Amino acid sequence: MKYVIVTGMSGAGKSTAMKMMEDMGYFCIDNLPIPLIGKLVEFSNQFSAKTQKVALGIDVRSGVGLGEMEDVLEGLKKYGPDVTFEILFLDAEDEVLVKRYKETRRNHPLAGQERIEQGIKKERVELAFLKKSADYIIDTSQLLTRELKGELEKIFIQNQDYKNLFVTILSFGFKYGIPSDSDIVMDVRFLPNPYYVDGLRAKTGNDKEIQDYVMQFPEAHQFLDKLEDMINFLIPNYISEGKNQLVISIGCTGGKHRSVTLANELYKRLEGNKEFGLKIEHRDIGKDALRGK
Q1: Going by C-beta distance under 8 Å and a sequence separation of 6 or more, which residues neighbour residue 196?
Q2: Which residues cross the membrane (predicted)?
Q3: What CATH number belongs to 2-156?
Q4: Where in the chain is the domain with CATH 3.40.50.300?
């Protein structure tokens, strides 16, 4: 029988993940008292339960029982190959967690009368041993619900080798500010601007005319070659250090032409790499149109 321990930071999407795993055929039990996990496994083994896949939701609501988790997991090893277990840890950046709590107007389970930030800080300390032992770590800071579902399907349905790093390529405009969650920021304003070319101003880097204009310059190709080489160097090192989320931001003046084109080209180059998950976003691509410019 296969058991998946679904855990992680409150607000990172554990309840959503449990619903998705239920749709994948897992028998899901949320917030089962930790001392009862061993009893559940023993009962299931003894009576040859038909259910062969079980997801157990565990979080800080387990209170003092959380300290027993390591012993419980160690105890499951006595069943040998008949019982396997994996740990899925859902995480998110502190700022994202605070925002989610404020949007739902809920209190953090460990905050008490203190600020949400203090509850999150305490929770990270209490869950540190589970994150360290996790087989899969998914940072949901930048993930949409459908993207989280896609990542879970890769792991639990397609049985793909999963790396815990998720890379977001993000185009933006400097005049709207540098994205606060950027890990790497690249400035492509050194390239000629299609904004000043007749007939190109209203188009975007998703249009072939803009792509042809930007990519006609040798400097654009040289930039991508050097950036790709740097990323290929950094990725294995980020993975070995346990980094879960990498945001590569590429900016031009308005975030509509050059940055979009080069972000798309970088995505094409990195697409298909099995070392990490990958997505692309164009933060400011439509802002000029909204402002009537």
Answers
A1: none
A2: none
A3: 3.40.50.300
A4: 2-156
